[in-house]
Amino acid sequence: MKQSLIFISLAAMLSGCATNLPKVPEDISSLTDNELCESFGIAYASKDTSSLSIILAEGELRGIEENDTCKMFIELGAQKYYDALDAPSGFQSAIKTLDEIGRMGHGSNHTVEVK
Predict the structure, then answer these.
(1) What is the model's pLDDT at position 20?
(2) Which residue of 31, 41, 61, 94 could cross-link 78, Cys pair, CB 3.0 to 4.6 Å?
(3) What is the pTM of this model?
């Protein structure tokens, strides 16, 4: 019973192992101008050239000009992508949790008796 609980807990922890990187939405036509600028930042940071060309075409179609607000949202999108890259993955978090569980009850109050 106890072993089954450990395996279930382990499976639940490992199910979130992948790092969730921000992605450009499939349908960019429904995005606001600011969201489109943010998506440009994500596409640029992730080196997604196909999304970049689609976003640029949509921006030209809408007549979005490169202004300070759009630049701010581009930087925000790129930063979201880079922050997600730097975040520890679910696997790293699971290993840390398992390591902490393994150390439970193994404090420094062990005594060694020498005869």
Answers:
(1) 83
(2) 41
(3) 0.63
